[in-house]
């Protein structure tokens, strides 16, 4: 992709595209039924999004993904983090 395109997205969102690309690469062969794997990904997304999430919210997200079969992608986790109550 065009480097200028990524720079534009970084400027608008404040999110480093290298971080997102690294996360995407780590998701490709990850076992989403493994709690430790899912927890690590949730923590990475939280860090990339620059959002602190309480332990109980992290536990809820992990449980939802592992037990309920929710699809794991950046948008799913980001939405859960942004909707924390």
UniProtKB/TrEMBL annotation:
It holds the Pfam family SpoVIF. It comes from the Bacteria. This is Stage VI sporulation protein F.
